């Protein structure tokens, strides 16, 4: 009788173990380039599981984290090389972008060659950006909503901007209006998450824009719950330790101008229905508005920049629905005080930062970052855009986005905040 019970217990334990193994294998965590040796990667002690900082022992991890991390490292074979034939294929591709979107037609592309800055300067730049971020995250003089919460306190739906590439061990937090379309394209090529006639895309610019922003294309943290259930948070934490994490940021006010230009100065049916109609009714006192954006533009009904600023400052806005991702603060999208980012890029230095990052990720032979847009919304335009915005509104707007200015080292726009 006792032997029968032991046998049944053994079968149950083995079944549970196999289920966990299948779950982990499904996510393919241990495949190529499971972790990266870069100048900004944390040091790994000999024999330690990659991603655990030197000096950290297994006793610092919760039991489930420990079990899963050991399981990932011991049960899955690491394929750390990409076949040369595949590598050559990835480098190939069309030399010109597929331009199928009005916004991209308007902007055009800059195909000029940009010289890379000295890598030592780039390394120092990264150290300074990370130091600024960490100092202000720890500084009690800077306060903003969600600053003090832990990673466990972040709801799953707020983790939808963290894109995971398990093939190369990369996590990218995308910020709309900060070259995120092309960075998403890069992530698709690296992760091979999208196929064209059965073959993974090799050139980022060959990927149609409508596929780039399709949420089903990317594996993001907020999808982990459906895959892993109660183990999802543990796996997120392990990947945050092991993988290289990066984001790109931008001057907050210039990002707002860029968002306004692309969503309200161009014919965008979705944004007209969801945002323009309410803004025109609330702040311009228009009634009986056209039912389509084309009819509205032909009749001269357009949201003004002043309408847009009023909408952002209106306390009713956030009560009805959280800010749209195109103007939501970066700290709310990427949680920089809860996630220790390894690389912080800026749109103002996009070409140099992108080239350096791909080199550090050891994928620069596989692809190049797509050429940047011409006529990028410039910081020098701020004065013109805000000239007709009342001073009190500008000051309130700065307070709304102050954390993004400070955390990412952007100077306070004193010329806009004083008479």
Distance between the termini: 89 Å
Question: Count of DSSP helices?
Answer: 19
Strand content: 5-15%
Oligomer: single chain
Secondary structure category: mainly alpha
**Low-pLDDT sequence parts:** 23-61, 74-100, 102-117
The helix/strand series, from N terminus to C terminus, equals: HHHHHEEHEEHHHEHHHHHHEHHHH
Membrane topology: Single-pass type II membrane protein
Transmembrane segments: 7-26
Pfam family, one: Sulfotransfer_2
Keywords: Carbohydrate metabolism, Glycoprotein, Golgi apparatus, Membrane, Signal-anchor, Transferase, Transmembrane, Transmembrane helix
Could you list some keywords that capture this structure?
about 425 residues; 4-stranded mixed β-sheet; two-stranded antiparallel ribbon; 6 strands; about 45% helix; transferase; signal-anchor; glycoprotein; Sulfotransferase; carbohydrate metabolism
Helices and strands in order:
Elements: H1 2-27, H2 63-75, H3 84-91, H4 102-107, H5 119-138, E1 162-165, E2 170-173, H6 180-191, E3 195-196, E4 199-200, H7 209-212, H8 224-228, H9 232-242, E5 244-249, H10 252-265, H11 269-283, H12 293-298, H13 305-313, H14 315-320, H15 330-334, E6 343-346, H16 350-360, H17 382-386, H18 391-407, H19 414-417
Parallel strand pairs: 2-5, 5-6
Antiparallel strand pairs: 1-2, 3-4
């Amino acid at each position: 009788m006792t032997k029968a019970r032991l046998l049944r217990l053994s079968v149950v334990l083995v079944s549970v173990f196999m289920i966990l193994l299948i779950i982990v294998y499904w996510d393919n965590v241990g495949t190529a380039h499971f972790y990266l040796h870069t100048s900004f990667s944390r040091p790994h002690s000999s024999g330690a599981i990659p991603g655990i900082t030197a000096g950290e022992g297994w006793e610092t991890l919760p039991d489930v984290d420990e079990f899963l991390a050991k399981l990932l490292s011991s049960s899955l074979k690491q394929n750390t090389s990409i076949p040369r034939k595949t590598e050559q294929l990835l480098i190939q591709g069309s030399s010109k972008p597929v331009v199928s979107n009005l916004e991209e037609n308007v902007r055009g592309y800059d195909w000029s060659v940009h010289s890379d800055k000295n890598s030592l300067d780039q390394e120092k730049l990264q150290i300074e950006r990370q130091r600024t971020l960490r100092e202000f995250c720890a500084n009690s003089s800077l306060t903003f909503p969600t600053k003090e919460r832990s990673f466990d306190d972040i709801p799953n739906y707020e983790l939808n901007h963290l894109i995971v590439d398990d093939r190369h061990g990369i996590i990218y937090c995308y910020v709309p209006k900060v070259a995120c379309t092309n960075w998403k394209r890069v992530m698709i090529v690296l992760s091979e998450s999208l196929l064209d006639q059965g073959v993974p895309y090799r050139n980022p610019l060959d990927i149609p824009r409508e596929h780039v922003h399709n949420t089903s294309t990317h594996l993001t943290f907020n999808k982990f719950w459906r895959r892993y259930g109660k183990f999802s948070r543990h796996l997120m934490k392990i990947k945050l330790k092991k993988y290289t994490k990066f984001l790109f940021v931008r001057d907050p006010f210039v990002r707002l101008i860029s968002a306004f230009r692309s969503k309200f100065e161009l014919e965008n049916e979705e944004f007209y229905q969801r945002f323009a109609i309410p803004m025109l009714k609330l702040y311009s006192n228009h009634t009986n508005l056209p039912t389509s954006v084309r009819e509205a533009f032909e009749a001269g009904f357009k949201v003004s920049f002043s309408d847009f600023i009023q909408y952002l400052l209106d306390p009713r806005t956030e009560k009805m629905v959280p800010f749209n991702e195109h103007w939501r603060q970066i700290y709310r999208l990427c949680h920089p005080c809860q996630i220790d980012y390894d690389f912080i890029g800026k749109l103002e230095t996009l070409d140099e930062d992108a080239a350096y990052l791909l080199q550090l990720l050891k994928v620069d032979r596989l692809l190049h970052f797509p050429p940047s847009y011409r006529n990028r919304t410039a910081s020098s335009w701020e004065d013109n855009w805000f000239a007709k915005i009342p001073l009190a509104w500008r000051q309130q707007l700065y307070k709304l986005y102050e954390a993004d200015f400070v955390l990412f080292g952007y100077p306070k726009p004193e010329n806009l905040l004083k008479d």
